[in-house]
Amino acid sequence: MFKNFFKNKSNMTTENTEFDQEIDDVTLENNANGEQLIIEELSVEEQLTQDLAKEKDKFLRLFAEFENYKRRTTKERIELFKTANQEVLLAMLPVLDDFDRAIIEISKSEDESLVKGVELIFEKLKGTLVAKGLEQVDVKAGDAFDADFAEAITQIPAASDKMKGKIVDVLEKGYKLGDKIIRFPKVVIGN
After folding, report:
1. Helical (H) or strand (E) element with 147
2. What is the per-residue burial (b if ≥16 Cβ within 10 Å, else e) of 2-31?
3. 54-92 confidence digits (pLDDT tens)
Protein backbone atom coordinates (compact mmCIF):
# COMPACT_ATOMS: atom_id res chain seq x y z
CA MET A 1 0.00 0.00 0.00
CA PHE A 2 2.87 2.25 0.82
CA LYS A 3 4.21 1.35 -2.51
CA ASN A 4 1.05 2.51 -4.19
CA PHE A 5 1.02 5.62 -2.10
CA PHE A 6 4.53 6.53 -3.09
CA LYS A 7 3.78 5.61 -6.62
CA ASN A 8 0.72 7.84 -6.52
CA LYS A 9 2.71 10.47 -4.72
CA SER A 10 5.34 10.36 -7.37
CA ASN A 11 2.64 10.63 -10.02
CA MET A 12 1.16 13.55 -8.12
CA THR A 13 4.52 15.17 -7.88
CA THR A 14 4.99 14.75 -11.57
CA GLU A 15 1.49 16.08 -12.16
CA ASN A 16 2.14 18.98 -9.76
CA THR A 17 5.34 19.76 -11.50
CA GLU A 18 3.59 19.71 -14.83
CA PHE A 19 0.79 21.79 -13.33
CA ASP A 20 3.26 24.27 -11.86
CA GLN A 21 4.96 24.43 -15.23
CA GLU A 22 1.61 25.18 -16.90
CA ILE A 23 0.91 27.87 -14.31
CA ASP A 24 4.35 29.37 -14.89
CA ASP A 25 3.76 29.30 -18.67
CA VAL A 26 0.36 30.99 -18.29
CA THR A 27 1.85 33.57 -15.92
CA LEU A 28 4.61 34.35 -18.38
CA GLU A 29 2.09 34.69 -21.19
CA ASN A 30 -0.06 36.93 -19.01
CA ASN A 31 2.95 39.01 -18.09
CA ALA A 32 3.91 39.25 -21.71
CA ASN A 33 0.37 40.27 -22.61
CA GLY A 34 0.39 42.63 -19.66
CA GLU A 35 3.56 44.24 -20.91
CA GLN A 36 1.98 44.56 -24.31
CA LEU A 37 -1.08 46.08 -22.68
CA ILE A 38 1.13 48.51 -20.79
CA ILE A 39 2.95 49.37 -24.00
CA GLU A 40 -0.39 49.83 -25.79
CA GLU A 41 -1.72 51.91 -22.89
CA LEU A 42 1.32 54.15 -23.07
CA SER A 43 0.85 54.64 -26.77
CA VAL A 44 -2.86 55.34 -26.20
CA GLU A 45 -1.84 57.71 -23.42
CA GLU A 46 0.63 59.40 -25.74
CA GLN A 47 -2.05 59.58 -28.42
CA LEU A 48 -4.46 61.20 -25.99
CA THR A 49 -1.77 63.65 -24.92
CA GLN A 50 -1.13 64.56 -28.53
CA ASP A 51 -4.85 64.92 -29.21
CA LEU A 52 -5.20 67.13 -26.16
CA ALA A 53 -2.29 69.29 -27.31
CA LYS A 54 -3.89 69.64 -30.76
CA GLU A 55 -7.23 70.60 -29.27
CA LYS A 56 -5.56 73.13 -26.95
CA ASP A 57 -3.77 74.65 -29.94
CA LYS A 58 -7.03 74.80 -31.91
CA PHE A 59 -8.77 76.40 -28.95
CA LEU A 60 -6.05 79.00 -28.45
CA ARG A 61 -6.08 79.89 -32.15
CA LEU A 62 -9.85 80.16 -32.17
CA PHE A 63 -9.79 82.26 -29.02
CA ALA A 64 -7.14 84.59 -30.49
CA GLU A 65 -9.11 84.89 -33.72
CA PHE A 66 -12.25 85.76 -31.76
CA GLU A 67 -10.38 88.38 -29.71
CA ASN A 68 -9.05 89.93 -32.93
CA TYR A 69 -12.58 89.94 -34.35
CA LYS A 70 -13.95 91.66 -31.23
CA ARG A 71 -11.17 94.25 -31.27
CA ARG A 72 -11.65 94.92 -35.00
CA THR A 73 -15.45 95.27 -34.79
CA THR A 74 -15.18 97.51 -31.72
CA LYS A 75 -12.73 99.75 -33.55
CA GLU A 76 -14.98 99.83 -36.64
CA ARG A 77 -18.01 100.64 -34.48
CA ILE A 78 -16.19 103.50 -32.74
CA GLU A 79 -15.06 104.89 -36.10
CA LEU A 80 -18.60 104.57 -37.43
CA PHE A 81 -19.99 106.50 -34.47
CA LYS A 82 -17.33 109.18 -34.91
CA THR A 83 -18.11 109.66 -38.59
CA ALA A 84 -21.82 108.76 -38.65
CA ASN A 85 -22.73 112.45 -38.64
CA GLN A 86 -20.29 113.25 -41.44
CA GLU A 87 -22.90 113.45 -44.23
CA VAL A 88 -25.25 115.59 -42.15
CA LEU A 89 -22.42 117.87 -41.07
CA LEU A 90 -21.17 118.17 -44.66
CA ALA A 91 -24.70 119.22 -45.69
CA MET A 92 -24.71 121.86 -42.92
CA LEU A 93 -21.42 123.49 -43.98
CA PRO A 94 -22.97 125.65 -46.74
CA VAL A 95 -25.48 126.90 -44.13
CA LEU A 96 -22.56 127.93 -41.89
CA ASP A 97 -20.96 129.72 -44.86
CA ASP A 98 -24.23 131.54 -45.57
CA PHE A 99 -24.47 132.59 -41.92
CA ASP A 100 -20.90 133.96 -42.07
CA ARG A 101 -21.79 136.06 -45.12
CA ALA A 102 -25.13 137.11 -43.58
CA ILE A 103 -23.44 138.30 -40.36
CA ILE A 104 -20.99 140.41 -42.38
CA GLU A 105 -23.81 142.04 -44.36
CA ILE A 106 -26.22 142.46 -41.44
CA SER A 107 -23.50 144.05 -39.28
CA LYS A 108 -23.44 146.89 -41.84
CA SER A 109 -27.06 147.72 -40.95
CA GLU A 110 -27.92 150.02 -38.09
CA ASP A 111 -30.44 147.63 -36.47
CA GLU A 112 -28.50 146.18 -33.54
CA SER A 113 -31.32 143.92 -32.37
CA LEU A 114 -31.36 142.25 -35.81
CA VAL A 115 -27.57 141.73 -35.67
CA LYS A 116 -27.76 140.32 -32.13
CA GLY A 117 -30.62 137.97 -33.08
CA VAL A 118 -28.79 136.56 -36.11
CA GLU A 119 -25.53 136.21 -34.12
CA LEU A 120 -27.42 134.37 -31.37
CA ILE A 121 -28.91 131.89 -33.87
CA PHE A 122 -25.52 131.49 -35.56
CA GLU A 123 -23.73 130.79 -32.26
CA LYS A 124 -26.39 128.26 -31.27
CA LEU A 125 -25.98 126.45 -34.61
CA LYS A 126 -22.18 126.47 -34.28
CA GLY A 127 -22.41 125.22 -30.69
CA THR A 128 -24.64 122.32 -31.72
CA LEU A 129 -22.31 121.33 -34.57
CA VAL A 130 -19.25 121.57 -32.32
CA ALA A 131 -21.03 119.31 -29.80
CA LYS A 132 -21.40 116.77 -32.61
CA GLY A 133 -17.62 116.85 -33.22
CA LEU A 134 -17.23 119.52 -35.91
CA GLU A 135 -14.16 121.73 -35.60
CA GLN A 136 -12.89 124.54 -37.77
CA VAL A 137 -9.48 124.03 -39.39
CA ASP A 138 -7.36 126.89 -38.09
CA VAL A 139 -5.84 128.54 -41.18
CA LYS A 140 -5.39 132.29 -41.59
CA ALA A 141 -3.65 134.79 -43.84
CA GLY A 142 0.10 134.87 -43.24
CA ASP A 143 0.41 131.15 -42.35
CA ALA A 144 2.77 128.97 -44.36
CA PHE A 145 0.87 126.93 -46.96
CA ASP A 146 0.63 123.20 -46.18
CA ALA A 147 -1.08 121.06 -48.83
CA ASP A 148 -2.05 118.53 -46.14
CA PHE A 149 -4.30 121.04 -44.40
CA ALA A 150 -5.45 123.44 -47.13
CA GLU A 151 -6.41 123.51 -50.79
CA ALA A 152 -4.80 126.20 -52.95
CA ILE A 153 -7.35 127.62 -55.39
CA THR A 154 -5.05 130.10 -57.04
CA GLN A 155 -1.73 131.89 -56.75
CA ILE A 156 -1.27 135.63 -56.95
CA PRO A 157 1.87 137.73 -56.99
CA ALA A 158 2.99 138.28 -53.40
CA ALA A 159 3.02 141.85 -52.08
CA SER A 160 6.41 141.15 -50.46
CA ASP A 161 9.07 138.46 -50.43
CA LYS A 162 7.89 137.58 -46.95
CA MET A 163 4.49 136.42 -48.28
CA LYS A 164 5.87 134.06 -50.96
CA GLY A 165 4.57 130.52 -50.38
CA LYS A 166 2.27 131.77 -47.64
CA ILE A 167 -1.50 132.10 -47.46
CA VAL A 168 -2.68 135.50 -48.68
CA ASP A 169 -6.43 135.00 -48.24
CA VAL A 170 -8.87 132.31 -47.02
CA LEU A 171 -11.80 132.04 -49.45
CA GLU A 172 -13.68 129.25 -47.68
CA LYS A 173 -13.27 127.87 -44.16
CA GLY A 174 -12.29 124.24 -43.65
CA TYR A 175 -13.75 121.84 -41.13
CA LYS A 176 -12.76 118.57 -39.56
CA LEU A 177 -14.69 115.86 -37.76
CA GLY A 178 -12.51 114.43 -35.04
CA ASP A 179 -9.06 114.05 -36.64
CA LYS A 180 -10.38 113.75 -40.20
CA ILE A 181 -10.67 116.84 -42.37
CA ILE A 182 -14.06 116.70 -44.09
CA ARG A 183 -13.64 119.96 -46.02
CA PHE A 184 -10.28 121.55 -46.73
CA PRO A 185 -10.03 125.33 -46.45
CA LYS A 186 -9.77 127.00 -49.85
CA VAL A 187 -6.97 129.53 -49.90
CA VAL A 188 -5.05 131.90 -52.15
CA ILE A 189 -1.27 131.72 -51.85
CA GLY A 190 1.44 134.23 -52.72
CA ASN A 191 3.77 133.50 -55.61
Report:
1. none
2. eeeeeeeeeeeeeeeeeeeeeeeeeeeeee
3. 999 999 999 999 999 999 999 999 888 777 778 888 999
